[in-house]
Fold this sequence. Notes:
InterPro entries: Mutator_transp_dom (IPR049012). This is Mutator-like transposase domain-containing protein. The protein is mainly α. It is built from 10 helices and no strands.
Amino acid sequence: MGTQLRKVKNENKGLGGRSKLTAKLIDELTVYYGLAIRRYSHSIEEMKNGIWATFHHKISTDENPQHDNCPTGKDSWCSWQKAKAHETLENYKHKNPIPKDVQKAIIPIYEKLSSDDLLKRCLGGFTQNNNENVNALIWSMAPKVTSSGAKIVEIATYIALSIFNDGYDNVLLMMQIMNLKIGLNAHQACQNFDTQRITAAKLRAQQTTKEARKLK
Length: 216
């Protein structure tokens, strides 16, 4: 999302500047998009509704509030829905909405990034970044520059998915099946790799949570 928004900003003069497609707004829309996918990763339809809910949230005005698809309740990230739950809507004032020209420019991005084909790959929280990580792992074992055959790529894919889903201990199991001698260094290396992987995942999750709180 962020890459696409920055690209359209650079390609269209006049979209940048104060109260327009600023870096802050791009960051907000990007975080909202990611949160929608993670919250509703069990359903393509709910992911799509969640993505568009964030767009309509940001273009809403006092005269035309568009929060029907925003989460309801006092704990909602949507300030309008939160005010509704607290019965204080009469005092609620919308912030400045995304300008019309910016809306027009970014709608195609939302349409593209909420397509069924893309969201199918995000089911279960398996986002585009996850796909890129797995691909990187595959090609690290079967580099494109060496013209690896189909069988090698297939084996690399199985190994990469096994590591991605269950950790590097699976590599030890594969070695054991092949009757390879497994030493202490191999065990230690796998533990270190998994520790690094889990730590990085926790940091990313904490950052996402922190960004979500800032947007409330």
